[in-house]
Amino acid sequence: MGIQAESTGILDIIRGMGGFIDENGMLQLGKGFCVGESIPPHGKIFQDFAECVQEAYGETGLREVSEAEARMIHQFRMYIDRHNIAYIRGLFKEDGMTDEEALMSYVQADIGRGGLGGRKLLREPARLHNKYPGSSSYREYQRGRENKKRLTPDFHSEFIIDRNGSFVSQWNVLEEDAHGRIISDIEYYRQKYLKQGQDAWEAAQRQIMDTESFNYASKNDEVHQRLDIEPPRLYDSDLRRQIADGWKSPCKRARALKDLKNRYSYRSDRGDAYSVSNS
């Protein structure tokens, strides 16, 4: 694949894939995501990408570069997400299986088959992946049907799973045009899903807002805050930022009685046999 992240800046890598920010603030890769389809979510190249970003921006965040460059670095993660979901579905999902069952097969599969050889995924709270409409509340809208989050043992690749065992991902919604570019205009998706009804448009928005997100950081620390948690608010595509205006994340704790209805239930994820707590 000709990519050596450890000796090349992340922006050079993105530009080498034909990266540019389009008219709707979304990163497009004109030459495609130039990483082989056989590379697993725990593959070394993704660890190298993450280390490259950590070394360059881990102490400062992305504010040291231009807005366009920051958007490119931040949004590059979504192409890794697409690769990882396609990898699990393509290599491990058989007829009749859910995405989660395929993910479990990936965990159990031998390393030689592209699996983790029994090494369990990390389990972390999915608070930011259980958003609710601003006109509702977490308790009313999401309580009892929370998505859960699982990460590869290196903390980088992330999967969000709903109660039906399906991946929650913006890539369940985003489409390419005839030229291979990701359609980034919100009106395209609004019109498409509203033809199916308001519920369909709401479900599509939920996929986009609760989507997985590759982590540049290697653990849940200040670097994670700077590189993975803060950038969406500043450098997301216009599509996601416009949708975000109507959605909220549950709060960590209730500062007042009125906040109780929006306090995230950290006990909602009871765990499973293929993951371990990352606390």
Please, could you describe this protein's structure?
The model has no long low-confidence stretch (mean pLDDT 96). The chain has ten helices and eight strands. Strands 6-5-3-8 form a four-stranded mixed β-sheet, covered by helices on one side. It has a two-stranded antiparallel ribbon with strand order 1-2. The radius of gyration is 18 Å and the shape is globular. 37% of the residues lie in helices and 9% in strands.
Keywords:
279 residues; alpha+beta; two-stranded antiparallel ribbon
What is the alpha-carbon Rg in Å? 18 Å
* Apparent shape: globular
Number of helices: 10
Q: How confident overall, as mean pLDDT?
A: 96
Distance between the termini: 36 Å
Order of helices and strands: HEEHHHEEHEEHHHHHEE
Uncertain stretches of 5 or more adjacent residues: none
Q: How many β strands by DSSP?
A: 8
Structural class: alpha+beta
Strand order of the largest sheet: 6-5-3-8
- What's the main sheet like? 4 strands, mixed
The amount of beta strand, in percent, is 5-15%
Question: What is the share of helical residues?
Answer: 25-40%
Provide a brief overview of the structure.
The chain is of the alpha+beta class.
List the helices and strands and how they pair.
Layout: H1 10-16, E1 19-21, E2 27-29, H2 44-57, H3 67-92, H4 99-108, E3 121-124, E4 132-133, H5 138-141, E5 148-151, E6 158-161, H6 186-194, H7 198-209, H8 222-229, H9 231-235, H10 238-244, E7 247-248, E8 275-277
Helix pairs in contact: 3-4, 6-7
